[in-house]
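Hi team,

As requested, here is the filled-out complex form for the protoporphyrin IX containing FE run. I kept the field names the same as last time so the parser does not choke. Let me know if anything looks off before we queue the next batch.

— J.
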Amino acid sequence: MALSQPMKVRAIHFLPLALVLILFVFYGNFEISWSMANKIAALVGLALAAITFLLGPLARFWPNLFAKYISHRKYLGLFAFAFIVVHVALSIVFYYDLSLDKMLYENPKVLGFYAASVAFIIFFVMSVTSTQKACGMLGYRTWKMVQMCGYIALVLSLAHFYILETKGEKGFSVRPLGYAVFALGLLALAAKVIAVLRHRAKTAYEQHVQHEAAHAHAVSGKEGVLKAAEEEGGGKYCPPGSGFG
Ligand code: HEM
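And here is what came back:
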């Protein structure tokens, strides 16, 4: 991660560590094994990714409370990816025994594997393009589109989680904190949908008011009273703490 200025240590920087400890104690009951390490890495990665995506909509709904965390999305997003890398490595070595057959040809849950692989590629691309320099090279629009693909990766990650942890008659069955992480992922998606719908409704309303004002201006010849509504999200430049938004 390329940081232009020295970073002040803040409470939010301890979130990855806090999540590991919480899951180690309350999810894994202090179990030390490759399998538990793998599950905890997967859950911390997913939880951090969900929190990263949640911060954008939360900052729009309650700017006073959450706007200050927006600049930490890159930090959290890169940590999310790091945990996912650990999870993928442990899964390939200990769960699939480095066997392509087990991963692809004899895998009853191959759909979950494909979903995870595509999600992983998206998170990878997001991570390597999370710098201001990459944003400058790609151009804001393309870069923003890449970053928005994170939501597709989140959907695919949840599908992967659901498919891999669905067991016969028990259905989707995990420990309570597993459900909590799954719910956090769904919450991040729901918040984004609400934020987009609210933004669309606002833009449609502003366009309507502008149209009315232009009409009144044309009819009366008087100065219109409205300024053009500024696009939300502020500008088309590459933000300094780029990435994961
Ligand atoms: C974006 C990428 C990914 C995310 C967010 C993710 C997340 C998760 C989560 C949350 C679980 C459930 C953990 C639990 O409570 O048991 C899981 C399980 C699993 N994932 Fe992933 N995963 C990702 C990519 C991958 C990839 C690429 C592979 C394959 C190489 C993989 C292999 C597995 C396996 C084998 C399990 C089952 C582990 C077990 O039950 O012990 N995952 N993953």
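Two things worth flagging: Residues 35, 38-39, 42-43, 45-46, 84, 87-88, 91-92, 95, 113, 116-117, 119-120, 123, 153, 157, 160-161, 164-165, 174, 178 surround protoporphyrin IX containing FE (CB under 6 Å). The chain has one domain: 11-195.

Thanks,
J.
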